[in-house]
Amino acid sequence: MNQQQNSSQTTEVLAIIARLLGMVMLIIGLVIGIKVIFEAWNLYDEPQRIERFAEAIDEGSNLDKLLSSLQKQTASTEPTSNEISATPSRPEQASLRLSYFLAWIIALLLLMVIGGLAASAIRTGGQLALYDLQVKRLANELIKQVQNSSQKPD
Description:
Shape: elongated
Number of strands: 0
Structural class: mainly alpha
Distance between the termini: 23 Å
Strand content: under 5%
Number of domains: 1
Largest sheet: none
């Protein structure tokens, strides 16, 4: 009878620990999910915030410099004198900033990955917080089986 009380108490303690851990995971997942939503909304409201990220990508990879040097090489073919007089002088075109587009892609992918992790934490935390009665019964049966196997003489 005493062993049954101990196993029942052990099961109850494990259930409480599992539920508390589930609640912690659920709250952390919700907080992270809300932060991801707010960050996505802030990027929508203020798209210039991605500029720092784009500059960091450009500093690390020099994509924009490479692209502008390729544009200069293709434009460096010298036109003849007739072509110079026929084409009006035009101002310098703004160069395509590949790092800006790459920064948007990376930022959106990071937001999706973090959002997926938050959703997984919410789902797992919810399952642990509910700690089903069937899981409790399974834990009791496992404890009984271990106790029975340890009591049987070899």
